[in-house]
Amino acid sequence: MQEQESRATRYTTLAAGDDFRHELEIRRSRFITVLRRTPDETAARDLVAELRREFHDARHHCSAFIVGPDRTVQRSNDDGEPAGTAGTPMLEALAKRETVPGVTDLSDVTAVVVRYFGGVLLGAGGLVRAYSESVSTSLALARLTHRSRLRICSTSVPPGQAGRLENDLRTAGFTLGQTAYGGSHTILRLALPDDAEAIDAANHRLQSLTAGTATLTLEGTEWVDTAHGS
Question: What is the pTM (predicted TM-score) of this model?
Fold first, then answer.
């Protein structure tokens, strides 16, 4: 069965790179938060397993994750803390994080909070605040990036026209993909926002630049990092 294409065309995730780590001490308990960019549920669970091995002497390894452009997969685990006091507030911190004012679109992110008990009971309310604060503080400090679904389009032109047309398209602000050179034709590829209006505008611009001799052919889509957030 073919996977249904996402309805979302853009979302926010962690910037590519190493895990982000941050530690809080609350009433002598250590809360070590690890954030990782995870493209699927398997990767999210792999992070939890890795941290169980690394922090094998910790009492709790609580986790929450959201994956998928549409944020359809959301899971959390209290890992021995009283029900609803760890995983749920962690998940809420991920789900309600505003990446720009009024927009909650964070996804492909896993948060694990490793707790070393300090001997002082925090109570249910204290635990909720501690786990929520651990994730929220970490997200405020981590580098985020926007991901956009781009539609790959191609056009075939004579080799003698390809160089100038490629330059004209770049000058016009289009993002070009890999060019394929052939003996009788050259294929230029453009990465465009995946909506009909943007594709129509690009097609009209291409026809204008080639006196109507070239048109765009729609190919697949790709998710790409397009801009950094906070």
Answer: 0.81
